[in-house]
Specification:
Elements lengths: L2 H11 L13 E4 L14 H7 L1 H5 L1 H7 L7 E4 L13 H13 L21
Antiparallel strand pairs: 1-2
Length: about 120
């Protein structure tokens, strides 16, 4: 079973619609890990977290967030390369934008890494 087939199976188990074969299937995001349960004998993420939350997440995360995952889980299944994004904090975005502006890099240029000064709710 390929990664895209396994992903489709997980996606269906989560009760979500799933594109037919041949259509792009890029990601599924969930704040709850229950859909990551496995039926092939492997330990699921959920079971690992239940069995040892501090060992899996660390004591600081458990103290701060309790028994709730402090992050968004995204599972990617791509048959072709994907463009992945990482979003900076508001402070990092402002610093990056100002740095690129000082360097004369237009926001529309392909090498620009920060392309906004206020359209994000983080600003």
């Amino acid at each position: 079973m390929g990664i895209a087939d396994r992903y489709r199976r997980i996606h269906r188990a989560a009760g979500a619609g799933c594109p037919p074969r041949g259509r792009t299937l890029a990601r599924r995001a969930s704040g709850r890990p229950a859909w990551l349960e496995t039926d092939d004998g492997e330990t699921s993420l959920l079971d690992a977290l239940i069995a040892d939350p501090e060992g899996q997440l660390g004591s600081a995360a458990r103290t701060r967030f309790g028994d709730v995952l402090p992050f968004l889980v995204k599972v990617l299944a791509a048959d072709e390369p994907l463009s992945l994004q990482a979003h900076p904090s508001a402070e990092q975005a402002i610093e990056g934008y100002l740095r690129e502006e000082r360097l004369g890099i237009p926001v529309s240029h392909r090498s620009a890494t920060i392309a906004t000064t206020g359209t994000s709710p983080n600003f």
